[in-house]
Amino acid sequence: MAQLIINSLLLVLILLFVQLFSSVKAAVYDLTDFGAKSDGETDSSKSFLSAWDAACGSPEPATIHVPAGFFLVGQITFSGPCKSSKITLQIDGTLVAPSYDSLGKVGEWMVFAQVEGVSVHGGTIDGRGSSLWSCKAAGGSCPDGATSLAFKSSKDIMISGLTSINSEMFHIVIDDCQGVTVQGVKITAPGSSPNTDGIHVQGSADVTITGTGIKTGDDCISIGPGTTNIWIEQVTCGPGHGISIGSLGKEYDEEGVENVTVRTAVFTGTQNGLRIKTWGRPSQGFVRGVVFEHATMQNVQNPIIIDQNYCNGHRGCADKSSGVKISEVTYTDIQGSSASQVAMNFDCSASNPCSGIELQDIKLTYENQPAEASCNHADGTTSGFVVPPSCL
Ligand SMILES: *[C@@H]1O[C@H](CO)[C@@H](O)[C@H](O)[C@H]1NC(C)=O
Q: Where is the signal peptide (predicted)?
């Protein structure tokens, strides 16, 4: 019996040793070993792709290292599935986008597709969007622009300590993924830059975004159709348009959004705080099971808003009501200042009224006075203190 125990202990030790050894031995592929130049001018796309192919094909966990310096990288798709079960992209330097003429029409700068167990750590990605924004501001014919970093149809993804600046359009997009952690990320673009959303999530499950600061010209975080189990904590937003579930209900055949938690978010000078936004169009979409808690509003135009009458450019929605059903939305401990009189606005669908809205411990002021609340087709309950008084 004692022998058996000793034998098993030995086996455990050997396994631990092998594990340690193999992780020490994990292959490291340095971008410069593949010919990349840190001068910010030489196109390093081919080197990057070769490094990816090596890492992806490695039977061991693999690391791609981007050293200090500036690396110009064009449109690039890191495709899986990979042999390596764990790939880390360790960035110490800055990845720089090419001019918008080449990227803007493609729609995406760096894309990871069909990968599993990929982490992106540290570093900076610079989308260099300002010349595109100038083009748009001048009203010329300019391309739409590109998302800086996208993950598509992927699993077990981690993005940590990354800084993303001046994307042409969205900074980070998570589409059709499962198990994504975004941690300690910094996103920055001017408040006036068009469509520079911070993080957009759609068609994805089990997404966690924590400890992240987002300053942009559009949504801080936007949550699109088909998102379930998303957890957002300790995020700061502003300038920008705040955290938005939506726009939803643009299509009739659309997946719903379920189980969203947003806690301890701080909004500073944003257009919205906590928003749910749907098109005024027929749709079978839905939003249910949303918890907004412990949010701080500093001079926010619409701290709490449900807008089911969105109709940008009247694309088949004039005089129609939204088919998206919104239910079980809880607001707990939401405090601070509104930059407009109506701090709480539930403008729900006439054909599909909001149900199960719960308000608890709300205190929103406008110019140091209690703000106002407005309700249309909204039903729910209140508890604790609710200022402005609820109109549910
Ligand atoms: C809701 O999502 C969280 C993660 O954000 C998860 O821990 C929890 O189990 C989910 N709840 C349900 C009922 O699926």
A: 1-26
pTM, entire model? 0.93
**Domain extents in the chain:** 26-218, 232-392
Question: What's the pLDDT tens digit per position in 320-348?
Answer: 899 999 999 999 999 999 999 999 999 99
pLDDT digits (tens, 9 = 90+) for 341-367: 999 999 999 999 999 999 999 999 999
Residue nearest to atom 7 of ligand 1 (CA): 229
Compute the residue count for the chain: 392
Question: What is the assigned CATH class of domain 232-392?
Answer: mainly beta
Ligand 1 centre to CA of 116 (Å) is 21
**Strand, helix or coil for residue 341:** coil
Same fold, 26-218 and 232-392: yes
Q: Looking at the domain 26-218, which fold is it? A: Pectate Lyase C-like (2.160.20)
The pick from 178, 229, 230, 263 for probing ligand 1's pocket by mutation, whose C-beta has the most ligand atoms within 8 angstroms, reads: 229
DSSP notation for 293-330 = EEEEEEEESEEEEEEEEE-GGGSS-TT-----EEEEEE
Report the nearest atom of ligand 1 relative to the CA of 258: 1
Q: In whole numbers, what is the pLDDT of the chain averaged over residues?
A: 94
Residue 2: is its pLDDT beyond 70?
no
| C-alpha–C-alpha distance, residues 295 and 301, integer Å | 15
227 alpha carbon to ligand 1 midpoint, in Å?
Answer: 12
Which atom of ligand 1 is least distant from the CA of 207? 5
Residue 276: CA atoms inside 13 Å, Cβ hemisphere, count? 34
- Which positions are catalytic? 218, 241
Cα 334 to averaged position of ligand 1 atoms, centre (Å): 22
- Pocket around ligand 1: residues whose beta carbon is below 6 Å from it? 229-231, 259, 261
pLDDT single digits (tens) 223-269 = 999 999 999 999 999 999 999 999 999 999 999 999 999 999 999 99
